[in-house]
Amino acid sequence: MEDRRLNLSLENQGSSYFKGKVVWIGNKKDDSEGTIFCVDTKTELKQISPTAENTENVVLDIKKEIIRISTASKTKCTVCGKNIEIFDEVTGCPICEAKAHKGHFIDWVRMKHACPVCKKSLNVSSSGVIFID
């Protein structure tokens, strides 16, 4: 899509709740599976991270130059119990793969030195990487 601006729309139950122009599309910096979209809403830049847990369907309409993402919260944070949404940074246990909001999981591991689900011993590096202790 040379020299064009691709739009992105997030939809829930058929209604659009977020729109913007795609600035870039890239891989996650922690090498986990998935893609990140950087979207310009004219008032801010937002990063969107669609995953199997927060996305029902993705459609690329080349004629209309838009990506439509149907969202759904299918996973709850193992620390706070709230839904993990498409805008949330997510991390998980390297042993049992329990998912949580990144900040919540890191804080939990720093305090308890264990996964909130499987209770296996974990630690957090100074750069915020969770590892098996």
Describe the structure.
With 133 residues, the chain is mainly β. It has two domains: 7-71, no CATH class; 90-132. It contains one helix and ten strands; from the N terminus they run ββββββββαββ. Strands 4-3-2-1-6-5 form a six-stranded mixed sheet, with no helix packed on it. Strands 7-8 form a two-stranded antiparallel ribbon. A hairpin with a 7-residue loop joins β2 and β3. The termini are far apart. The mean pLDDT is 92. This is RING-type domain-containing protein.
Topology of this protein?
Blueprint: E1 7-12, E2 15-27, E3 35-40, E4 45-48, E5 55-61, E6 66-71, E7 90-92, E8 99-101, H1 102-112, E9 122-124, E10 130-132
Parallel strand pairs: 1-6
Antiparallel strand pairs: 1-2, 2-3, 3-4, 5-6, 7-8, 9-10
Labels describing this entry:
Znf_RING/FYVE/PHD, 1 helix, two-stranded antiparallel ribbon, RING-type domain-containing protein, 2 domains, 133 residues, single chain
